[in-house]
Amino acid sequence: MQLEWIYLITAGFLEISWAVSLKYTAGFTVLLPSLFTAAAMLGSVYLLDLATKEIPIGTAYAVWTGIGAAGTAVAGIILFGESHELWRFFCIFLIIAGVVGLKINIGG
C-alpha cells in the first residue's frame, strides 16, 4: 500500500475520533475532550492534505468522508446506543462499498 493511502486511511480514522469526541466537549466547554477534538481535526485535515499530493482530490475527499461517515455511524451504534436497524447497516455498507470502489477504480 502506498504511503498516501496510509495517510488517507489514518485521516479517516482521525475523522471518526474527532466526531465521536465532539459528543464529550459540551459545546467546547470541557477542556480535555475539546483539545483532543481540535487535535484530531487538525491531524485529519493535515493527513488528508498529504494524501492529496498523489491521490486525486475527488477520490481522497470521498474516501475520507466515507470512512468518517461509516465509522462514526458504527461508533454511534456501539457507544451511544443509536439505532441498529438492518436498513441502517445496509446504508453503512453502501458507503463502504463506494469507498472500496473508488480505491479499486484508480488502480491502487
Automatic annotation (TrEMBL):
Gene3D superfamilies assigned: 1.10.3730.20
- Pfam families recorded for this chain? Multi_Drug_Res
InterPro entries the record matches: EmrE-like, Small_drug/metabolite_transptr, Small_multidrug_res
Membrane topology of the entry: Multi-pass membrane protein
Q: What is its main location?
A: membrane
Keywords carried by this UniProt record: Cell membrane, Membrane, Transmembrane, Transmembrane helix, Transport
Keyword Transmembrane helix included in the entry's annotation: yes
The residue range of the signal peptide is: none
Q: Where in the cell is it found?
A: Cell membrane
Q: Where are the transmembrane segments?
A: 5-24, 30-48, 60-80, 86-106
- Protein family according to the UniProt entry: Belongs to the drug/metabolite transporter (DMT) superfamily. Small multidrug resistance (SMR) (TC 2.A.7.1) family.
Q: What is this protein called?
A: Quaternary ammonium compound-resistance protein SugE
Name the species this protein comes from: Pectinatus haikarae
* Taxonomy of the source species: Bacteria, Bacillati, Bacillota, Negativicutes, Selenomonadales
